[in-house]
Write a structure and sequence with these properties.
CATH topology of the largest domain: Immunoglobulin-like
Shape: extended
Low-confidence stretches: 62-67
Number of strands: 13
Radius of gyration: 21 Å
Structural class: mainly beta
Number of helices: 0
Distance between the termini: 45 Å
Helix content: under 10%
């Protein structure tokens, strides 16, 4: 079995490396099915000289969230929430957690924007700009290249808007 990894959220990947003995097992593709949430489940039969025969299912989830925005809870929120970033003050990295509720109890995607502004109101970063399913998310913010000072981040989703303050120390 080969493995490749990323340290920058999927922008670059290491060269694949063997993590098991090349001759210790064989893999045979069996089936792939669409799941109820738009993902794909792929079934493989694995034959190992050490562990015998087994069936492996690999699930590929359809992601509606942009890279750098991580869903952190499977619980469906009841309200929009924009939490205070953590840590605050920060240098240069911080996280912004927010929740998007289901509309009238339905699991519908919503257009969501999370932007960062300087003290003069100039947009300096867009952390989220896309469709998100209801859920609780965490967005990463890197303040490298910005001056120390007060910044504001604003979440907009439908008619909901909330703004909070954060402090970048240098």
């Amino acid at each position: 079995m080969m493995c490749s990894y990323s340290t920058d959220r999927g922008e670059n990947w290491s060269s694949p490396e063997w993590v098991t003995d090349k001759d210790s097992f064989t893999i045979a593709y069996k089936a792939a099915t669409l799941t109820h949430d738009g993902g794909i489940a792929v079934n493989y039969e694995v034959s190992s000289s050490v562990n015998g025969l087994g069936l492996v299912q690999v699930y590929f989830r359809k992601r509606n969230s942009p890279l750098g925005v991580n869903p952190i809870s499977t619980t469906l929120p009841c309200n929009f929430v924009l939490n205070q970033n953590y840590p605050n003050p920060f240098n240069p990295y911080t996280k912004v957690r927010f929740s998007i509720p289901g509309i009238r109890g339905l699991s519908e995607t919503q257009s969501v924007q999370l932007k960062v502004y300087n003290i003069l109101g100039k947009e300096v970063a867009t952390l989220v700009n896309g469709q998100l399913n209801p859920g609780t998310y965490e967005a990463d913010f890197n303040g490298n290249g910005l001056s120390g000072g007060v910044y504001f981040y604003q979440l907009t989703a439908g008619r909901f808007t909330d703004t909070r303050k954060m402090i970048l120390t240098k």
